[in-house]
Design brief:
With about 230 residues, the protein is of the alpha/beta class. It has 2 domains: about 150 residues, Rossmann fold; about 70 residues. About 45% of the residues lie in helices and about 10% in strands. The model has no long low-confidence stretch (mean pLDDT about 90). It starts with a strand and ends in a 7-residue tail after the last helix. The chain is globular, with a radius of gyration of 17 Å. A 6-stranded parallel beta sheet has the order 3-2-1-4-5-6, with helices on both faces.
Length: about 230
């Protein structure tokens, strides 16, 4: 039985991470830190915005948590403004979410802040299908971390109990796989390399054509060692 599906926003439902990268690089440049997209990808790809800013400043010997938070807020506002003008969902994402919603409860987990997430969800047309949203603003330890998944399950359980072992996180990074598994949640990767998907409970190339029965089928095929 499948109780809930916890969906990573960036990389799974939408490719909005590029917007965050561009806005962070712009904000850092305003503070005299000139990073490249390559430096960002190597150091920050799976961090929340505040942690990204802390990492960038530390790389040039500047330790200033207050400035990092101000930069993170500036980036979040800029991201929300850009996303409000429109963006594209990943192939098959809209059809996948709308088809899955009648069968299980859906949650969004994201490293983005709540303000920009609210804007993105409203623009995406998916908000009516989502039972709960957990952002970096809702947890002490920023994603990817087990706390985002346990928080999402706790929120869903306020209406009806949800078991972690009957829940699936759909993710796109090794760190998210490990975080989901640490929370007792099964993990399925989308569009990742074999190296990343090896530690997951299943893998698909995209959301196109993926169904509730398809997810259940992937879990039923689990070798005992990976369950």
């Amino acid at each position: 039985m499948l109780d809930a599906v916890l969906l990573e926003w960036e990389g799974v439902l939408a490719d909005t991470g590029i917007v965050r990268r561009d806005e962070l690089l712009r904000a850092l440049a305003d503070e005299g830190v000139h990073w490249t997209a390559e430096a960002y990808d190597a150091s920050c790809g799976e961090l929340d915005t505040h942690a990204m800013a802390v990492t960038a400043f530390a790389s040039v010997g500047r330790i200033d948590a207050t400035l990092a938070e101000l930069v993170a807020l500036r980036v979040s506002r800029a991201c929300a403004e850009r996303l409000s003008r429109g963006f594209s969902l990943q192939p098959g994402a809209a059809q996948f979410v709308s088809a899955l919603a009648p069968h299980v409860r859906l949650a969004i987990v994201t490293r983005a802040r709540r303000a920009e997430t609210a804007v993105a969800l409203a623009a995406s047309g998916l908000i009516g299908f989502i039972a709960t949203v957990v952002t970096v603003d809702d947890v002490v330890e920023g994603p990817p971390a087990p706390s985002v998944y346990t928080k999402a399950l706790a929120s869903l359980s306020r209406i009806r109990p949800v078991a972690s072992g009957s829940s699936v996180a759909i993710v796109d990074s090794a760190a998210a796989v490990h975080a989901a598994r640490a929370a007792g949640v099964h993990a399925i990767t989308v569009g990742t390399s074999t190296h990343v998907s090896r530690s997951a409970h299943g893998a698909v190339n995209s959301l196109t054509g993926l169904t509730h029965d398809g997810i259940v089928g992937l879990l039923r095929e689990l070798p005992a060692a990976r369950a």
